């Protein structure tokens, strides 16, 4: 199976700091993969490179088998086909929940106002936010904001959605509402690459888990593998730490 | 002239003062927004140009610019012999530097994630600036723009020197025809306060409220 999104020997450096070092991985249609690893291990950087939001220092990114930076494709067009959910609050603060979703539908997909409105509403319904369409981000809880962020990403009908620790900044009570929306998406067959430390989510939906440490992929395996017998000492310790 | 007639005479010059201030504000707004975006999102030469422009015109007195254009350029380019036009241009050029700084700090406060989020849904950088960054920056800039309008209304008084018939000129005409120097200047000062304070104050309050409401 060819991957929808793939990177090969990807390296990203910020000055002298090597944030991601020699990472190769791919994600195929309908798969859900989870990336986890300590703070600073390079999860966000890797996802930003895969989401074409940042250019890798070295290595390549393939979208549907085509090398993005060699083929000189229009990055804006490709980005519209890759959904991205951010770790930090990222809703457009001057727009309502509905407006946040309509923006891309109108100005990227070229839908009419009425079509965009209808589609945005459908997306909000999927994340159970249909009662909040006219609220501004500042009037919503962190969990609600993240759900609107997910709706914004999926409203563009992307082929793959990247999630960068969407629940990391949330209180425990708010995490589950976001996680359950993500589980729905996985069950519907959405192709997802998710950075998260929510191991219960990983256990239930992940086809594969990827453990990162110091910019590198240290170990890859099924949830079962990581829950029972990780190979590396680092992975074992990290699992123990987040399982408490 | 009775005191009432004198005040009416002063008020007759208010539209010209407001016209100079308003037009130069618009010119400064166009310049300021462009310079700020050039500075933050432009290629190196544009960044350098914007930076130099801002530094230069924030350091030069507006009166110097006005006199230079009027007396220096006037003989070469007849359009600068028009005092009204030259006043608007001078005030606008200098205001552009101030407004560039106002927008620069507003755009920086909008934050990097908003740009990333905007391009992540496939918007081009230009559309992201237009639909995501600029609207938020505008809310953040409003209090600063209020002070800038007040500053322009006050600084429009310089145009009296190159011969625009505005409020300061009327004040001077009264002074010349009066034995009392006090009444014309006091009245005129009060008119300036009435023109500047409410606008600046209102925009400051409105901007701060929006900022709070939207969590900017
Ligand atoms: N824009 C940037 N400029 C400079 N250094 C950066 C930048 N982004 C990330 N880094 C550095 O790269 C390394 C990896 O950071 P990254 O944010 O990708 O890790 P992470 O796994 O997402 O961590 P966290 O779990 O805390 O979100 C860190 O050392 C970080 O300081
Ligand atoms: Mg991160």
Overall SS class of chain B? mainly alpha
Largest sheet of chain B: none
CATH superfamily of the domain at 1-75 and 195-244 in chain A: P-loop containing nucleotide triphosphate hydrolases
Can you say what the CATH homologous superfamily of chain B is?
Answer: MetI-like
Question: How would you classify the helix and strand content of chain A by structural class?
Answer: alpha/beta
The top-level CATH class of the domain at 1-75 and 195-244 in chain A is Alpha Beta
Mean pLDDT across all residues of chain A, rounded? 95
Output the number of helix runs of chain B. 9
Count of alpha and pi helical runs of chain A: 10
Largest interface: A-B, 30 and 21 residues
CATH architecture descriptor of the domain at 1-75 and 195-244 in chain A: 3-Layer(aba) Sandwich
| Strand element count of chain B | 0
Number of strands of chain A: 10
Please mark out the parts of chain B with pLDDT under 50 across 5 or more consecutive residues, or reply none. Answer: none
Oligomer: heterodimer
Query: CATH class of chain B, anyone?
Result: Mainly Alpha
| CA-atom Rg of chain A in angstroms | 18 Å
Point out poorly predicted stretches of chain A: none
Topology:
The complex is a heterodimer of chains A (244) and B (216).
Chain A: E1 5-14, E2 17-27, E3 32-36, H1 43-50, E4 58-63, E5 66-67, H2 68-71, H3 75-80, E6 82-85, H4 97-107, H5 113-126, H6 142-155, E7 160-164, H7 172-187, E8 192-195, H8 199-205, E9 208-213, E10 216-221, H9 223-228, H10 233-243
Parallel strand pairs in A: 3-8, 3-9, 6-7, 7-8
Antiparallel strand pairs in A: 1-2, 1-4, 4-5, 9-10
Chain B: H1 3-11, H2 14-41, H3 44-59, H4 62-73, H5 83-110, H6 112-120, H7 125-155, H8 167-177, H9 182-214
């Amino acid at each position: 199976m060819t991957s929808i999104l793939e990177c090969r020997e990807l390296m990203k450096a910020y000055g002298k700091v090597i944030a991601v070092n020699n990472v190769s991985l791919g994600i195929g249609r309908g798969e859900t993969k989870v990336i986890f690893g300590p703070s600073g291990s390079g999860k966000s950087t890797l996802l930003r490179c895969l989401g074409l939001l940042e250019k890798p220092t070295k290595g390549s990114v393939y979208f549907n088998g085509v090398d993005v930076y060699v083929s000189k494709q229009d990055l804006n067009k490709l980005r519209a086909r890759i959904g991205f959910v951010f770790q930090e609050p990222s809703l457009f603060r001057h727009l309502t929940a509905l407006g946040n979703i309509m923006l891309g539908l109108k100005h990227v997909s070229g839908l009419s106002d009425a079509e965009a409105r209808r589609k945005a509403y459908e997306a909000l319904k999927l994340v159970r936010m249909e009662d909040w369409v006219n609220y501004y981000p500042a009037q919503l809880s962190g969990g609600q904001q993240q759900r609107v962020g997910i709706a914004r990403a999926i409203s563009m009908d992307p082929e793959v959605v990247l999630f960068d620790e969407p629940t990391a900044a949330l209180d425990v009570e708010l995490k589950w509402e976001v996680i359950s929306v993500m589980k729905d998406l996985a069950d519907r067959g959405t192709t997802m690459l998710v950075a998260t430390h929510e191991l219960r989510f990983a256990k239930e939906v992940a086809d594969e888990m990827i453990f990162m440490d110091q910019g590198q992929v240290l170990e890859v395996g099924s949830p079962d593998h990581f829950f029972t017998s990780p190979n590396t000492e680092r992975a074992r310790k990290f699992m123990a730490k987040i399982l408490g | 002239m009775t005191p009432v007639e004198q005040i009416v005479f002063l008020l007759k010059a208010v539209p010209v003062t407001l016209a100079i201030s308003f037009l130069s504000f618009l010119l400064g707004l166009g310049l300021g927004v462009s310079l700020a975006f050039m500075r933050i999102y432009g290629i190196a030469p544009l960044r350098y140009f914007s930076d130099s422009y801002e530094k230069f015109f924030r350091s030069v007195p507006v009166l110097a610019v006005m006199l230079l254009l009027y007396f220096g350029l006037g003989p070469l380019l007849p359009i600068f012999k028009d005092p009204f036009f030259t006043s608007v241009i001078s005030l606008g050029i200098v205001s552009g530097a101030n407004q560039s700084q106002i927008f620069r700090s507003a755009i920086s406060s909008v934050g990097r994630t908003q740009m990333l989020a905007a391009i992540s849904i496939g918007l081009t950088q230009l559309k992201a600036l237009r639909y995501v960054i600029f609207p938020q920056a505008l809310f953040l800039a409003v209090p600063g723009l209020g002070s800038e309008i007040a500053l322009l209304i006050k600084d429009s008084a310089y145009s009296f020197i190159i011969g625009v018939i505005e409020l300061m000129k009327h004040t001077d005409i009264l002074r010349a025809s009066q034995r009392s120097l006090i009444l014309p200047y006091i009245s005129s000062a009060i008119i300036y306060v009435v023109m500047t304070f409410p606008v600046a104050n209102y925009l400051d309050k409105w901007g701060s409220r929006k900022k709070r409401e939207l969590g900017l």
